[in-house]
Specification:
Structural class: mainly alpha
Low-confidence stretches: none
Strand content: 5-15%
Mean pLDDT: 93
Oligomer: single chain
Helix content: 40-55%
Strand order of the largest sheet: 3-4-5
Length: 181
């Protein structure tokens, strides 16, 4: 997971994470711990397989995985994670801006970081820093929006290209409000 994070590649953890839920209504403590540890280790996404393909209650398995992930994320040491990842960003203006946006969002307790992106790279750079703040990625490209969903903390929105700063701020505020950020 760490090597993926450093390389800027999304890491997915998918190792029979809630296997007991194929037949049971609750995961074991060990399974809950495995999911929580994957989140704490910085995985971008967790994945279920048999739990949702042949399990007795696939919706419950998905809800359980989401609840474990959300609860774990509430207790992560975001400032420490951000400090650790300080040197991981690209040594470029774009990488430094992404890190700085995360740093400022943390310091100001911002409700969202908005990333306008055509290719998805801007949102990916921000996600690599693991901000506590949700990342609202606004893109005109549906394929980019789908691809970004695998990255940590990104909520996507497809929107026509934006040409002025005033439009940028208006769209940002409108979408942040609509997504309840």
């Amino acid at each position: 997971i760490r090597k993926c994070s450093i390389a800027g590649v999304p890491g997915i953890t998918a190792t029979e994470m809630l296997e007991s839920m194929v037949t049971q209504g609750r995961p074991t403590r060990a399974e809950v711990t495995d999911v929580a540890n994957a989140i704490a280790d910085g995985t971008d996404a967790t994945m279920l397989s048999a739990e949702t393909s042949v399990g007795k209650n696939p919706a419950l398995a998905v809800r359980t995985m989401a609840e474990i992930a959300c609860e774990t994320e509430r207790h992560l040491p975001y400032r420490q994670i951000l400090d650790e990842r300080r040197g991981w960003h690209e040594n470029s203006a774009e990488g430094i801006i992404a890190y700085s946006a995360c740093y400022l969002a943390n310091e100001l307790n911002s409700r969202a970081i908005v990333a306008f992106t055509r290719s998805g790279i801007t949102a990916e750079r921000v996600s690599r820093c693991r901000p506590k703040t949700p990342i609202l990625a606004i893109t005109p490209d549906e394929e980019v929006a789908r691809r970004l969903l695998i990255w940590w903390g990104i909520i996507t929105s497809i929107h026509a290209p934006i040409h002025t700063a005033d439009d940028l701020f208006a769209v940002s505020a409108s979408l942040a409000t609509a997504t309840r950020l």
